[in-house]
Specification:
single chain, 552 residues, alpha/beta, ABC transporter transmembrane region fold, 2 domains, seven-stranded mixed beta sheet, 62% helix
Length: 552
């Protein structure tokens, strides 16, 4: 309800007024029916006033209920829309470390399943609003008929509500079930992203399935336990309503002599009329509780993302298209390996980059090459040391402009189907690049969208490089780009594409293990070798036409 009150775009007072009017109309229908029924058999035989009130109240009730249900649905969907967009906006403005710490499963669950729970609760919420108002109005009508019956019903139902509320405070099992469901998402990702590895190894497949089975069973047991408690409380609340009805019929007449048969019948009718609304309210509690938990998780995620998001002013920094020098001085970065909880340190690192430089980064697996690339790209902020662009420190205020120099293809790159962010005319150049990279017969570009991404690993990387070249940024970062290329295209890259890029004035930093091809280059380059997070060797390479490496 706090979320609805904070996010609602329409008129909340009008919605409350219509809900109140709906409850009054429903109570008026009940009063008209009771009055009309009591008039049967008397001299006039029919209460025209009661009939008129019944018709008018019914028409008003129909219109107000439609307004409440439609408005509530529209408002909840609008709130969900706002939340999704706001979360995605905060995600795109957050830093990589924050996103990695939160975890993919938590983010995806909040934007998909949690917002879906909120959307599904709209109908339940509209019925709950009407039910609360109806119960309140009928309670006033019961008090009008008999104060004693009202007090007795209030005592019995109030005791049931207190027991219900006291038993429903704990939500630990619901939280556990939600956590297990997030773990299930991670295991599903293992099945899909690691399908080849799973299919190749029957033992791995069996172990993964068994582990997934345990998580799924734990999630089911947690949900069964929490829902069982809710269902027990639901039965308790329903029992309290029936006890109130029985108390009015069987207990009240023994202690209140002023109650006649007609009053008891009218009071019992009123209570029967409201029993359905009360049952609806009780049954809506699990749905609203789930929506409440979802709203709480979304609020927590939004708070975390808001703290990690870059300010709007920084995000609007003007992009750079040229630079004079980038310097890394004594840069240190540490991260914790999730699998072993060990701390891995990269640095201190010193690196200078100038326009037209070609830098090859080599080293074994786990030596820190990819982390160096992320530091250079501005995706990881250094814990100590500094990165400067033309003498200006790269910080929260300048990082966005610094990143605008970079176009990167990381080892875990993502290939977009549309050319997002590329506004310059590119049609002719795109056709030429697709042909040059031997992709023209595999996919085509129309209206800013590729016809297909169903390509091999090497072809996808070539297409990613086409997109990077269309961005026309001065610095190109490549992380093991040639690893998925066949020998023929790998040779073509080093002896044809790379010289073309260098002649065009590109600045390239490339992680590679292609020592053979490095020895054959005939233009200046810098080779950096890394081990255990340190730059252990730095070589300025100048090769001749015969492939003999010269080291000044």
């Amino acid at each position: 309800m706090q979320l609805v009150r904070r996010e609602i775009r329409g008129s909340l007072p009008k919605l409350i007024f219509m809900a109140g009017l709906s409850g009054i109309c429903d109570a008026a229908i009940l009063a008209a029916v009771n009055t009309g029924a009591s008039a049967v058999g008397k001299s006039d035989g029919l209460s025209h006033w009661a009939a008129a009130i019944f018709v008018v109240s019914l028409l008003l009730s129909i219109n107000t209920q439609q307004y409440i249900m439609i408005t509530t649905t529209a408002e909840i969907e609008a709130i969900v829309h706002q939340l999704r967009l706001r979360l995605m906006d905060q995600i795109r403005r957050s830093e990589l470390l924050a996103i990695e710490k939160i975890g993919r499963a938590t983010i995806v669950a909040a934007i998909t399943s949690d917002t879906a729970v909120l959307a599904q609760s709209s109908r339940t919420l509209s019925f709950a609003i009407q039910g609360v108002v109806l119960v309140f109005c009928v309670a006033i009508y019961v008090a009008y008929l008999s104060i004693a019956a009202f007090v007795l019903s209030l005592i019995v139902v109030g005791a049931g509500v207190l027991m219900f509320h006291g038993a429903s405070r704990s939500s630990e099992e619901t939280d556990k079930a939600s956590e297990r469901e997030r773990e299930l998402y991670d295991r599903l990702t293992d099945f899909l992203d690691g399908f080849k590895e799973v299919r190749l190894n029957a033992t791995r497949s069996g172990d993964l399935f068994d582990y997934t089975f345990e998580i799924s069973r734990a999630a089911a047991n947690s949900k069964i336990y929490s829902l069982s408690k809710i269902h027990r409380r639901t039965v308790l609340a329903q029992t309290a309503l029936y006890l109130a009805l029985g108390a009015v019929v069987f207990v009240a007449p023994r202690f209140v002599t002023s109650l006649d048969g007609s009053s008891i019948v009218m009071t019992a009718t009123a209570l029967l009329f409201v029993v359905g609304a009360c049952f609806g309210l009780v049954q809506s509690i699990p749905v609203l509780a789930a929506a409440n938990a979802a709203a709480d998780r979304i609020a927590q995620l939004e708070s975390t993302l808001r703290a990690a998001a870059v300010s709007t002013e920084a995000a609007k920094s003007q992009p750079n298209r040229q630079f004079k020098q980038i310097e890394m001085r004594d840069v240190v970065f540490r991260y914790v390996d999730k699998s072993s909880d060990t701390v891995f340190q990269v640095g201190p690192l010193d690196l200078s980059l100038q326009p037209g430089d070609l830098v090859f980064v080599t080293g074994g697996n786990g030596s820190g090459k990819s982390t160096l690339m992320r530091l250079l790209a501005g995706l990881y902020p250094p814990e100590s040391g500094s990165i400067t662009l033309d003498g200006i420190p790269v910080d929260d205020n300048t990082r966005e402009a610094y990143r605008s120099l970079m176009s990167a293809i990381f080892s875990d790159y993502h290939l977009f189907r549309r050319l997002y962010g590329i506004t310059e005319p590119y049609a002719a150049e795109a056709v030429s690049l697709l042909r040059q990279f031997r992709l023209a017969d595999k996919t085509e570009l129309a209206n800013g969208e590729f016809s297909t991404l169903d390509l091999s690993g090497g072809q996808r990387k070539r297409l990613a490089l086409v997109v990077s070249l269309l961005e026309k940024r001065p610095i190109l970062l490549l992380d093991e780009w040639t690893a998925d290329q066949d020998p023929e295209f790998r040779y073509k890259f080093y002896h044809e594409f790379l010289p073309q890029l260098m002649q065009a004035g590109a600045t390239i930093v490339m992680i590679t293990h292609d020592d053979r091809y490095l020895a054959e280059l005939d233009f200046p380059a810098i080779r950096i070798r890394m081990d255990e997070g340190q730059i252990i060797a730095r070589t300025s390479m100048q090769t001749n036409k015969r492939g003999e490496t010269q080291t000044p």
